[in-house]
Write a structure and sequence with these properties.
The chain is an alpha+beta fold. The protein is about 35% helix and about 20% strand.
Length: about 50
Amino acid sequence: MTNKTCAACDDDVGENPIKVTIGQKTVEVCCEECARALREAEKARATGK
């Protein structure tokens, strides 16, 4: 079985990954901290900051 890695930190996402939508793509992250970081990065990208 292939392990999936977190889109934010490259750690193993484990049994219950959190799905985060970035633009038109949904990615999986390992924890709420990584999910929050990606959401904040997407928000900054969308507002041009």
